[in-house]
Amino acid sequence: MADNGGQLLTIFFFFDILDFVLLLLFTTFIDCIVYGNPSFTLFLYRLSDLQTPYLSFPLQVDNRPKYYGREYHGMISREEADQLLSQAEGSYLIRESQRQPGTYTLALRFGNQTRNFRLYHDGKHFVGEKRFESIHDLVTDGLITLYIETKAAEYIAKMTINPIYEHVGYTTLNQEPTLKKLLPLSPEAPDGPAPAKDDNNAEERLTSLVRRATLRESDLAPKYEKVHNFKVHTFRGPHWCEYCANFMWGLIAQGVKCADCGLNVHKQCSKVVPNDCQPDLRHVKKVYSCDLTTLVKAHNTKRPMVVDMCIQELEARGLQSEGLYRISGFSELIEDVKLAFDRDGEKADISSNAYEDINIISGALKLYFRELPIPLITYDAHPRFIEAAKITDAEKRLESLHEALKLLPPAHCETLRYLMAHLKRVTQYEKENLMSSENLGIVFGPTLMRAPELDAMTALNDIRYQRLVVETLITHEDVLF
Predict the structure, then answer these.
(1) Listed range (68-72, 443-447, 471-475) with the worst mean pLDDT
(2) How far apart are CA 427 and CA 297, in angstroms?
(3) Domains of the chain
(4) What is the pLDDT of residues 226-245, one digit of tens each?
(5) 271: Cβ–Cβ under 8 A, 6 or more apart, which residues?
(6) Which of 30, 109, 225, 313 has a CA positioned 20 to 30 A from the CA of residue 290?
(7) Can you tell me the mean pLDDT for 32-45?
(8) Where is this region: Disordered (predicted)?
């Protein structure tokens, strides 16, 4: 329709069919929460409160940015934008700031008032964390969010109070027969891996919570605590939160998903989910460059299998090898061992038949520790270990190191204990391999306790203390662990 002497043309900008179906589902969900048992008539009545967005745009505007369409109105004031948008709920426009030329604002009519959001573009449009391909999608998602947060604000605030997280009843939904088939048949069932099932797809149909519930106590040992590795995720189709059991709303980035175990939750729920991530091998694709705790929990082992297997191989045929750990093997063959572990896991062949040079195996072990995203001696614990190394009194230094070890995650501490015990056995063959605890400290210091982001001079000064830490851990392994 024409307005203001033909200077303004207003048109309706309807959802596409998918947007509209999703909006129906989300609105129905809120009606269920806020208005009790909804009839179809009540649903239609409440749906009428939420208008499909329409935009208003002028016939001609100079200097329009190439990434905006006809919703762009140029440099107009808040008051002018409010007057233009007062015609209908859900209308919107983009204006350039008069106070800060070159910056843009999305003006959106909702709740009988005009709301203004600073608008950004870096290849995609965004006003917050979510990024959209088009202004239309941004506005659509914004209207859904505003509608839900307005109609169900009180309920949303209480969503995390009574979670269903630990109740298998909800997460099984209609999959109870599958769950019963995967659970042990009796309390007397022996420990160890569950027997293979004929239905290979059964477990894949389970949610991450149900999969966790089917694991027996023996399968969860050792019980290392692990935080979830949540990443913002866009879910296709309606999805519910596995913490509070409520739907996740929006067109994109409706919630977060744990990259290690697949748990799907609202962003606000992710802040209160317990640190009980049980990584799934379907999500943990690598051995090298994988978080240590994630790897051991995914494989239900005390230590990374690469550490156990390499050390067993080294002790079987390499303890008397001159320059063990100091002499490097061929880098291409070390990379080959890495690829074998990433591809085959515990089935990787690192025997003398595959790699005759023992330095290739020692090089692969050192490479594993170098590529850990969080070092074996973690960034958080690093300062305490350096402080301990600076103590001149030997007895007090041991006490300080013992306290510093308590700061390590359990899986890190167990792996460090196992490695130090191995390196101590290496020193027992010092006459043959010429590797003392001091020499091993020089080799492993920077590998096991990489410094946090420090200036070059501080990092250089820390090297001697890193050596001293590893040397002391090897020498006094039986006392410190």
Answers:
(1) 68-72
(2) 31
(3) 54-156 (3.30.505.10), 230-285 (3.30.60.20), 298-479 (1.10.555.10)
(4) 888 898 888 887 788 888 88
(5) none
(6) 313
(7) 40
(8) 183-203
* 3-state secondary structure string across 303-325: CCHHHHHHHHHHHHHCCCCCCCC
- Type of residue found at 141: D
Reported residue count of the chain is 481
- Burial class, 200, CB count within 10 angstroms (exposed 0-12 / middle 13-18 / buried 19+): exposed
Classify strands 8-12 and 255-258 as parallel, antiparallel or unpaired. unpaired
CB 325 within 8 A of CB 290: no
In angstroms, the CA 422 to CA 433 distance is 14
- The DSSP 8-state label assigned to residue 51 in this structure reads P
Q: Name the nearest CA neighbour of 271 among 308, 230, 233, 304.
A: 230
The pTM is what?
Answer: 0.62
| Matching residue, tokens 């649903």 | 43
Quote the tokens at residue 326: 């100091």
Cα(403)–Cα(388) distance, integer angstroms:
9
Residues pairing with 70 in the sheet = none
Q: What is the DSSP string of 392-420?
A: -SHHHHHHHHHHHHTTS-HHHHHHHHHHH
CB crowding 77-97: b at 16 or more within 10 Å, else e: eeeebeebbeeebbbbbbbbb
Query: How far is the C-alpha of 263 from the C-alpha of 243, rounded, in Å?
Result: 9
Mutual angle of helices 382-389 and 394-405, in 10-degree steps:
170
How much of the chain, in percent, has pLDDT values that exceed 90? 43
The residues with which 276 forms a beta bridge, in sequence order, are 226
Tokens (6 digits) for 230: 């949540």
Nearest CA-CA partner of 231 in 262, 264, 256, 267: 256
**How far apart are the C-alpha atoms of 187 and 329, rounded to whole Å?**
50
Angle in degrees, 0-180, between the axes of helices 456-475 and 382-389, rounded to the nearest 10: 70
Whether 322 and 434 have beta carbons less than 8 Å apart is answered as yes
d(CA 242, CA 265): 6
